[in-house]
Amino acid sequence: MSNSGFKSLGRDCPICQGARRDCRESLSTGFVFCRHTEANPGGQWRYIKDDAHGFGVWAWGEGKSNDRPLKVTFIPPKAPVPTLPPAARNTGYRALIEHYPLTPKHRATLAQRPHITEAELEAIAPYLFTWSGGATAPAAAAGLPGVVAGQLWPRAQGWAIAIPNASDEIIGAQIKNPQGGYFWASHADQAPVQLPNGELPLGVYGTPTDNGVVNLGEGFFKPALSAARHGGAWVGAAGGNWASSPHHLRAALDALGCQQVVLNADGGAIANP
Ligand SMILES: [Zn+2]
Predict the structure, then answer these.
(1) What is the distance between the alpha carbons of residues 152 and 146, in angstroms, rounded to a whole number?
(2) Cα separation, 182 vs 156, whole angstroms
(3) Of 214, 208, 150, 155, nearest to 183 (Cα)?
(4) What 3-state DSSP class applies to 269?
(5) How is the beta sheet containing 6-8 ordered, strand by strand?
(6) What's the 52 CA to ligand 1 centre distance in angstroms?
(7) Ligand 1 mean position to 137 CA, how many Å?
(8) Ligand 1 mean position to 75 CA, how many Å?
(9) What is the dihedral of CA 23, 27, 31, 37, to 10 degrees?
(10) What's residue 78's pLDDT?
């Protein structure tokens, strides 16, 4: 750079040691203008300010060094992935269940549970499937919560239970965690598990009885099994948290002709899964 009293420093910048090639020195003041944003020169180099062109201005000599401006990188927010409506979820999950039915191994695992009968297992079989983490998802399941780049969410392996609403549309699924509890089939970059109204899915199992009683049972497997065992209509919620899905619960109870709700805190006599 030859104009207006500056000397181009090329590789000889004392601030960045030549990491940049556009550094310059003012011939009148001796200040060094260096665009390196993280340079940390030793000696008595003091940062003064950034000039209007984005050059850090540095002076040699004793005195107070100013704070260099924070380098701010603006990352635009990711557009939220819209939630899938129930009809699209139903199509996707049913394709998934058909493609990856319960494996004999997982069926055997479930059959070993205390007191469960073959007939009960058969009755809830339509809601059971195997989540083969990392396996290719059928095309119809693309966009489901938990389907990532055409694959089933890879960190989960296990049997899974489908979550139907009162219209028998499958609106979600939970995967059994071998260490205990369940995972939601979901991934941060995918459509959320939550329904379009923001509430988590509740599961509706069984058929309503004439007395208008609707049973609440914690989780999804237990109410599904209770419906097979005791009959009647059962509404399950993850963690027993029906209250956090109030509109969904109201719609389910209305659809079931509910006149009385019975809370089965421990799922009746059924042993914990
Ligand atoms: Zn420099």
Answers:
(1) 6
(2) 10
(3) 155
(4) coil
(5) 6-8, 24-26, 32-34, 56-60, 45-50
(6) 16
(7) 52
(8) 27
(9) -10
(10) 72
Residues 6 or more apart whose CB falls under 8 angstroms from that of 136 comprise: 150, 151, 152
Q: Is 254 exposed, middle or buried (0-12, 13-18, 19+ CB in 10 A)?
A: exposed
- Please give the distance, rounded to the nearest whole angstrom, from the Cα atom of residue 73 to the centre of ligand 1: 21
Distance 50 CA to ligand 1 centre (A): 13
CB 171 within 8 A of CB 89: yes
Residue 116 near residue 57 (C-beta atoms within 8 A): no
Ligand 1 centroid, distance to 69 Cα (angstroms): 16
> Count of CB atoms within 10 A of residue 37's CB?
14
Question: ipTM for the complex?
Answer: 0.95
Asked whether the beta carbons of 234 and 221 are under 8 A apart, the reply is no
Beta-bridge partners for 131: 158
Between the CA of 25 and the centroid of ligand 1 the distance, in Å, is 10
Report how far residue 24's alpha carbon sits from residue 256's, in angstroms, rounded to the nearest whole number.
78
Q: How far is the CA of 55 from the centre of ligand 1 (A)?
A: 9
The pLDDT tens digits for 94-110 are: 999 999 999 999 999 99
Give CA–CA dist 148/157, Å, rounded. Answer: 15
Work out whether strand 260-264 and strand 213-218 pair parallel, antiparallel, or are unpaired: parallel
Alpha helices in 131-245 (DSSP H): 221-230
Q: Is 53 helix (H, G, I), strand (E, B) or coil?
A: coil
* pLDDT more than 90, % of the chain: 68
pLDDT in tens, 151-166: 998 888 999 999 999 9
249: tokens are 């619960």
Structure confidence at residue 265 (pLDDT): 66
